[in-house]
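Worked example

This section walks through a single chain of length 209. The input is the sequence exactly as stored; nothing has been trimmed or padded.
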Amino acid sequence: MPINDKGTEFVLFDTGADIYARNIQRRLRSINANLTLAAVKAIFITHGHLDHVAGTAAFPETVVCVSEDDREYIEGKMRAESPIGAILGRLPKKARRSQNLETVRDQQIVSVGNGHFVTAHAVPGHTTGSMAYTIGNVIFPGDAMIFNKYGGVSLSPRLLSRDTKVAKRSLMGLVDRLDDSIRIVAPSHSDAGSIDVVRQWCEDQRKAT
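Given that input, the structure is written out below as tokens.
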């Protein structure tokens, strides 16, 4: 996401699974042929699974913000959570990092660029330290949810999550806390959609209990 008026500085929410971040390089060049990975000024990690953090290896000088609970996975000190994560084990050595890591906590506001602010929101469940981030009128929930093929909301599968019941409560609590300025939801594994759809899902979940 651009964080200056010229579109030459960016903030990332997760980095993908490629330790060379080639997909990010291609995207930057599609915006401006002169852009390099150095245009990324900050990275916010939603959770510690490999497909979200391995690309941080391509940004050794960029500050990476991550929750305290998921920081140890990026450092290679613990296995990924979830049944599948336990099988996959620790992050590969080439993808690990210990420098330029900053811990963010629930409701912390981080200043990025010229007049932009990112707010961190704890949404435990998919992993213990899962975070969502808001900037402007957009929320990036990571794997806390997706928009499914029917246009509704789904949670990440049980095999990929630490605790789906906790994940459900966390998402509902997060939506309750968001102010009306948030209009767009941009999950990691689906197209973006309207916050109104997620609010309706929350109401339907309450009626069903």
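What to look for: The longest strand covers residues 116-122.
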